[in-house]
Specification:
Elements (H helix, E strand, L loop, with lengths): L1 H20 L3 E6 L6 H37 L2 H14 L10 H22 L3 H17 L13 E5 L3 H4 L11 H16 L24
Antiparallel strand pairs: 1-2
């Protein structure tokens, strides 16, 4: 889970660097330059705790239930696509989601990214960490809106660029700037899991002794 959180730091840093280099982002300062340090620590801790619960709950639903249930009845490709599409639709009610096609597509791609974390490990810990880190470092860490939501930010920035690229008030998930960050994330997940042996789910039928499936006499 910690690995998932850490992977999102360079991803959000890349988005920050792209927007800053393009002149779409103005850095204003850090939170402790504007607010008392005690308030900064308190608000940041609250936001992090909230994102822990958000990441935990949404991954249990989307990758823990939707993805795995669809995979058991269809196949991995359709399970990833359909569960990620549902994940995208779930965010259409968020604030600042007027460009619904961009929002749904961006969150769908994010869902595929999170599903990749699950498929590489066949455990939910990595996608849960990715989800927590994504929200926290996107919002509090680098100062972007998180799926249309504004929260306490450690980095104070002003975004003034084309919404097609930056995602506008919804945040990077609705902009093309998301794509290079996701590509980096895919590469990092693969690099960190390439030597990992993925164990089959012990509940799968092929891993159980055949007598388990015999009816009692």
């Amino acid at each position: 889970m910690l690995l998932g959180i850490v992977i999102t730091i360079p991803m959000m840093g890349l988005i920050f660097a792209i927007e800053w280099a393009a002149g779409w982002l103005t850095f204003e300062g850090f939170a402790w330059q504007f607010d008392p340090l005690g308030l900064v620590i308190q608000e940041t801790a609250i936001i992090f705790l909230v994102f822990v619960f958000v990441g935990w709950n949404e991954e249990l639903l989307s990758r823990g239930y939707h993805l795995q249930t669809l995979e058991s009845g269809l196949n991995t490709f359709w399970a990833v696509l359909l569960s990620s599409a549902v994940f995208g639709v779930m965010h259409l009610g968020n604030p600042n989601s007027e460009s619904k096609w961009f929002v749904a597509t961006g969150i769908l791609l994010a869902g595929v990214f999170l599903a990749f974390g699950y498929l590489r490990t066949r455990q939910l810990w990595l996608p849960i960490g990715l989800h927590i880190g994504w929200n926290f470092f996107e919002g509090s860490g680098f100062g972007f809106p998180v799926s249309g939501l504004e929260m306490y930010r450690l980095t104070r920035v002003t975004i003034d660029g084309p919404a097609l690229w930056t995602g506008g008030d919804f945040g990077p998930e609705a902009g093309l700037v998301l794509i290079p960050a996701l590509l980096l994330g895919f590469a990092l997940i693969y690099a960190f899991t390439r030597h990992r042996t993925v164990e089959q789910n012990p509940l799968q039928e092929e891993n159980l002794p055949p007598e388990i499936f015999e009816l009692p006499e």
